[in-house]
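Section 3.1: Structural characterization of target chains.
Under the original work plan, the team committed to producing a structural model for every single-chain target entering the pipeline before any wet-lab resources were allocated. The record below documents one such target. The sequence was received from the expression subgroup and is listed exactly as submitted; it comprises 187 residues.
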Amino acid sequence: MPTPPPGAATPSTGSDARAAAPTAPEPQVPTGAPRPPGQWPTGRLVSAVARRIERDWNAHLERWDLNHASLPVLYLLSGGPRSQRELAEASGVTEQTMSRILVRLERTGYIRRRPHEQDRRRHEVVLTDEGRQTLLEAGDPRVAEQMSIRGLSPEQVRTLRDILGVMLAQRPRDGDPVPEGTSAEPR
């Protein structure tokens, strides 16, 4: 029987075949020839899919002069005014990065900055009426979901969501909610 290429599925018998955990492709010395995706390490596959979905999402948001980093800020502001620091913390970015996002959103008229009501030394960021309307149009979660699950069956979507949930739980960020029945410590 010929030996299958590294990473290829092999027929097996018995109940042990279903219980065996999938393994990463066998490491190979680079030859200069591109490797097919089935031979890529898992991390590269996850990263490649994420980049392609992000590219599709940015193309969708371009119509409103938004991108994948600016739309979540509009969502956050739909709950009420926030400071730049609060927005940065909630988005998991630095205040410098948030400043650039806010400049772009302010330029488009989707947000405005105003003095804080209790502390005139501080400013708060508020969503404008135009920003709220844009959020309704551009931020339709059904569009984002369809971009993310294209080509998958409902069962595959459920499995993918379960797997991604486990992967995120193993890589918590400060401020992430801890799901009920789990510990905040990674295993």
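The chain has a mean pLDDT of 82.
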